[in-house]
Hints:
The chain is an alpha/beta fold. The protein has one domain (3-230): Rossmann fold, CATH 3.40.50. 47% of the residues lie in helices and 15% in strands. The chain has 8 helices and 7 strands, in the order αβαβαβαβαβαβααβ. Strand 5, helix 6 (162-185) and strand 6 (190-196) form a beta-alpha-beta unit. Helix 2 packs across helix 7 (203-212). The longest helix has 27 residues, at 114-140.
Amino acid sequence: MSAAHRAARTSSESGPLGGRLVLIAGATSASGEAVARALVRAGATVLAVGTRQEALDRLAAAVPGVDVRACDLADRDAVAELAMRIHLKFGPVDGVVHLVGGWRGGGGIDGQSDADWDFLERGFRTLRNVSRVFFDDLVASPTGRFAIVSSTAVDKPYAGGANYAAAKAAADAWTRAVAQGLSKQAPQSAATVFVVKTLEGLEDELGAAVVRLWEVDAADVNGRRLPLEAARMDG
């Protein structure tokens, strides 16, 4: 999309995120729905991506205006094709919210199974794919934002959740590396890690916190690990 087309997209929308195009990866959870609703209310064009079409259809019915896309985000080629289709229809994205995840664990160190690790590692793979494919979009955007949800288990891991804590630590470190890359190439853009013990009951707060990322200077949130309950970011 040309600069003129981006400007036209921006002027055609209302709200604090008017004209911004935001992709939610792993959008069919309760938190994904809350983030989608908050972004739509703020004026963003929202692309909700998941693997199950029936769940995406339910999301589209629950949050009118969301554009849903089925994609295996663990497949780099599939993500590249998704990006191509998005660029052709909408242009480059201004934000990515990565919510692919899930809990697996229990049993102490000797009970950390390979099957659990494979499940958790797949979520990290989706993060790597999405951030690599859409990184140039975030660099080019006048207000690029990238966000994930991490866990307090990164700072206080325990034996029964070793697989989970390790996967979350990897995602946390990767996102902060994205932040460092943005600080060098695009200081107007930012990557942020929200930290929470559990998202249950905090879905709406997550949605509000994601919207607030566009209401503050990139430098105030880039590379930061923000406890979700305290992620007010008043500037």
